[in-house]
Amino acid sequence: MEAKDNLRQLIQMFSTFEENELDRIENCFKTRIFKKNTVLLASDEVCKTFYFINRGCLRTYFITKEGHEKTRYIMMEPSIGTALTSFISQRPSFEFIDALEESEVLAISRTDFYRLADEIPAWKNFYLKIMEMAYSFQNRKIESLVTLSAKERYEQLIRENPKVVQRVSNKILASYLDIKQETLSRLKSR
């Protein structure tokens, strides 16, 4: 299936679109291929792009004052995402986006994204749904960090998203779960 067909299928899960609206939306997205380890957005840059991941894996992460990476979100096909706070506010990002694998994405500019929200009610509804999902996801992640042990967080990830455990390095997986790599290795060996 072609990337733009996958995009259509994904956005139609959130809202109902007319065929001509889907054509307009599709025309705003440009195909981009990123090699593994490509940085799409660096800290202190303003995020101007929203991504649909057709193939591959991107992540958003922070670097602490001590130089440690803290992975906030891992995006695998077929999914969407960006550095939302910077994308919305147009202020410099605190986080990075990079490609964990060679990745094929469809990218839409912030200008086109918001123009579509102004002109197509179904796109505005799509935007609302993804904002609700992002809020819920981040809230659940905070809840798990506060209430679950490292073992419970790892087991939850295996249940909810086993592909992440299979495809992402232990270093990144540990930063996502907010545990030490040694702890992750012990959990994986059990």
From TrEMBL:
Against Gene3D superfamilies, the record matches this protein to: Jelly Rolls
Cyclic nucleotide-binding domain boundaries:
13-116
InterPro entries xrefs: cNMP-bd_dom, cNMP-bd_dom_sf, RmlC-like_jellyroll
Among the Pfam families in the record, one is cNMP_binding
Protein name, entry field: Crp/Fnr family transcriptional regulator
